[in-house]
Amino acid sequence: MTSASDDGRDRDAEGRARNARPRDGLGRPLPYGTDGVERQPEGVVRAPEETVTEAQALLTAGKPFHAHEVFEDAWKSGPDEERALWRGLAQLAVGLTHAARGNVTGGARLLRRGAGAVEQWAAETGRSRPYGLDLAGLAAWARELADTVEKDGAAVDAEVRAPRLRGDGA
User: Rounded distance, CA 16 to CA 35, Å?
Assistant: First the structure.
């Protein structure tokens, strides 16, 4: 639950600043009173396979911002040795979000950063397909998309350009 405070800012029950404005499918704030896309609940602890399945469903639906929140939950709640993996996947989802919003520079930068992060994690751990994830394929997808948005200089369709996390259509 969120309410306005004395300083006019939206705050959650613990008093932390928390924007209560509705959001669109790419996580952009909409005016108060507008119908928005339901937010992902924060702080959900999921099994890694559930994280991948839920994030894929959101990506396929053209909601990379929401997928990033699912990866962020895994990054914050998972074992220390997997945090870099989940953080890299969150960067890929945020990169797609920015590319879909038309932020060419930020989107390309985050896509490449996420690609490097998942490749580095795979190299350091010797795990190229954790939880069925196709890390090499995701890195290639991200770099190709980064090149495309820089070349075209235009927003991409997040649903059309969504990656297949497992590389098998799932």
Answer: 24
- Alpha-carbon torsion (163, 167, 168, 170), positive or negative: negative
**H/E element holding 37?**
none
Cα gap 99→93, rounded to integer Å: 10
Distance separating alpha carbons of residues 145 and 154, to the nearest angstrom: 12
Distance CA 84, CA 126 (A): 14
Separation CA 138–CA 154 (nearest Å)? 21
Q: Could you tell me the pTM of the whole model?
A: 0.84
Q: Rounded mean pLDDT of the chain?
A: 88
How many CB atoms lie under 10 A from the CB of residue 140? 15
Structure tokens that stand for 7 in this block: 């300083």
Q: How far apart are CA 80 and CA 69, in angstroms?
A: 18
- Phi first, then psi: give them for residue 103, nearest 5 degrees: -85, 85
Give residue for tokens 């075209």.
152
Query: Distance from CA of residue 2 to its chain's centroid?
Result: 23
In sequence order, the 6+-apart residues with CB closer than 8 A to the CB of 39 are 23, 66, 69
pLDDT for 1 equals 46
Q: What would the two tokens of residue 143 be? A: 């770099």
